[in-house]
Amino acid sequence: MSSSIASSSSSSSSSSKKEKKISLKTSDGEVFEVEEPVAMQLEIVRSFFADNEDVTEQTVMPLPNVSTAAMHGILEYCRAHEEFRRRMPEAAPEEEVRAFEAGYVDRKSNEELKEMILAANYLNISKLLDFLTGVAAKRIENKSVEYVRAFFGVENDFTPEEEANLRREYEWAFEGVDED
Amino acid sequence: MSSIHLPIEILYNILGRLPVKDLIRYMSVCKSWRDLITHPNFISTHMNLHRNIDGYVLHHKMATTRTGLSCFSCLSYDKTYVEHSSFDIPFSCESVYFQLVGSINGLLCLSDSYQYFGRTIYLWNPSIWKLKVLRSSCFNHNYCDIGNFFSVGFGFDHHANDFKIVRIMYFGDFYCPYVEKELPRAEVYSLARNSWRRIGIKAGCYAIDKSATAVVRGAIHWFASRTKEASGSNFILTFDFGSEEFGEIMLPRYHCDRGRPQVSLRVLRESLALIVGWYNNYELIECWDVWVMGEYGMAESWTKRYSIVPEERCFRCLGIINNNELVLDKSTRQELVSYDLENMQFKHLAISRRYTFREEKKECIRAPTKKVALKGERQRR
Q1: How many Å apart are CA A111 and CA B172, to the nearest integer?
Q2: Rounded-to-integer distance, Cα A126 and Cα B217, Å
Q3: What is the pLDDT of residues B78-108, one digit of tens each?
Q4: Which of A121, A142, A151 lies nearest to residue B10, judging by beta carbons?
Q5: Where are the annotated coiled coils located (chain A) (predicted)?
Q6: In terms of CB atoms within 10 Å, which of A28, B204, B237, B355 comes out highest?
C-alpha cells in the first residue's frame, strides 16, 4: 500500500515538469533527487537552503550520517506524508495515516528501526523521530532484561552479585514479562 | 550483538514512554541505565510525559484477609471516571482494615482503622512497590490504651520538597472524648530526614476528623471542636506543612433547625469548602449545603454557594471531583454516584462488581495515579 502511494506521488510530480528537485548525497555516495516539498520536511535540509542563499539547484547536499538504506526509509515516510498533506491540506486522514505507519514499521527489523531513528535524529525530522521512538518503546515494552540488552546492544556491566541483588529487591517487576 | 548505539537523548525519549514497572526492571540492564532511570531529571521528565493519565484513586475499605479483591481503583480523570486499573495492598496491617490518610503524587499514606488509627503509619508507593512502616514516635504511649486517640495529616512541603506527616495524640476518655485528661501532644515526620520531631499544640480542642482530606495552600484542615472545659463550639484546625504550625479558622453559621448534620471539609475549585448534609428521618441525607471560603482565612468570606435537594438520597459524601461533582455513596444500593453541582444531574459511576459486598466502605480522594512514578522513591533517597 505504501509503495502505491510513493509511485503515485512520483507520477504526479513527473506530470508537473517544473517541480524543483533537491539532490541529497548519502554516506555511501548515492545521490537522491528529491521533490522540494518532501526534502523540506528534513529540517537540516530546509535550514541549509534557508541559510545559504548562493546554493543553486545543482548543489548536491552531502548527508554523511545517513546510509542509503535509511534514506530509502526516510523518503518513503516523507513522501507518504506529503501525499496526505496534498490530498487533505486541512486535516490528515488519520485512519489512513495510521494504517500506513503500521505497515511501514512492520517490515523493519530492530536494526533497521534503530538506523532510521539515528537518521531521523540527524536530519531533524521531529515528527518521524517521535513516531519511531514510540515504535521502539512499544517493541521493548514488557520484555526481559536480556531482550532489552540485545535490542540496544548494551553490555551488562554489573557483577553477578549486584544483578542478583537488584532482581531480589525488585522481584515483583520481573513477574509477568513476555517471552523473548 | 547489535552494532548501532543510540545516543543518550534518544534513549531518554524511548525510556520516558515506558511504564514504571518496565523501568524498574530495566535498571538491571547496565549501570548507566540504572543511573539514568533513577536520575531526578529523568523522573520529572517521565512524570511530565505521563501527566495525561492523572486520575482519581478510590479506596475501598475492606478486610485485608479478603483475597482477589483490590483495595484501590484508579479512575480516569476525564468525565467518564472509568476504572482504568486497580491495585491491592500487598502487605497487611495490624487492624482488620486500612484507613487512607491521604495521597500525594501517588504516594499513599495509610494507617490502621478504628481504635488503632494513627499508631502505625504506612507510606506506600504502589507504582514502585516501596513501603515504609512508621512505628516510632517522639512520645511513649500505651499502644492498647483505648482512651488515647490520634489525628493524622499527610502533606507536602513545596519549599523543602519533602513529604510530611503530622500526628496529634489526644488523651481523652473513649466514651466521652471531649474531656481532656492530659494535654495533647503533636509531632511531625519528615520523609527527607526520616524522623519525627515534637511540635507545640494548643490545649482545649480536638480534631474530630481523624484524617484530614482538605489541602489548601499547603495546609491541611480538620473539623474540630473545643473540649467540654473550653465549652463546645466547632471550628477548623489547620496545620501548615511549610511553617509546621497549627492555626484556626472560623466556620460559617451553617446550622439550622434540622438537627445535627454530617459535616466534611473538602476542596472546591482550589478553595476550602464545607459540605453539610442534612438527614431525613431514615438516616439518609436529603439535602446538601456547600459552603465555600472565597478568601482563604477570612471567616467573613464564607458563602453558601449551593443548596441542593437531589431526587436520590445518599448516605454520605466522599469527595469532590472535577471541581464540580460531589461523589456520593448510595449505601442502600451499594453504588457510587456523582452529582454535578451546575447541571444538577446524577451520574452512576461505572465501578465494577466489588460494590456488591455489604461490608465495604469507600473513600474517595483526589490523587494522581501513575504520574507519580518514582517521585516517592526520589524523596526517600
Answers
A1: 70
A2: 39
A3: 667 777 666 777 777 777 778 888 887 778 8
A4: A121
A5: none
A6: B237
CB B123 within 8 A of CB B162: no
CATH code of the domain covering residue A97: 3.30.710.10
* Closest alpha carbon to B194 in B143, B241, B135: B135
* Residue A89 and residue A163 share a domain: no
Q: Are residues A86 and A164 in the same domain?
A: no
Closest Cα in chain A, distance from residue B16 (Å)? 9
* A136-149 pLDDT, tens digit each: 999 999 999 999 99
Q: For residue A46, what is its C-alpha cell?
A: 530546509
**Range from A117-131, B79-93, B147-161 that averages highest in pLDDT:** A117-131
Interface pTM, i.e. ipTM = 0.84
CA of residue A147 relative to chain centroid, distance? 22
Cell, residue B221:
484542615
- Which set of grid coordinates corresponds to residue A114? 534503530
Closest CA–CA distance from residue B103 to any residue of chain A (Å): 22
Find the domain containing A18 and state its range.
Answer: 2-140
- Provide the CA B38 distance to its chain's centre, in angstroms: 27
- Rounded Cα distance between B272 and B76, Å, is 24
- Closest Cβ–Cβ partner in B1, B17, B26 for A134: B17
For residue B151, what are the contacts with CB-CB under 8 A and spacing of at least 6? B118, B167, B168, B170, B206, B207, B209, B210, B211, B212, B222
| Separation of CA B31 from chain center | 37
CB contact (8 A) between residue B2 and residue A110 = yes
Q: Which of B5, B31, B129 sits opposite A157 (nearest CB)?
A: B31
β pairing state of B271-279 and A21-25: unpaired
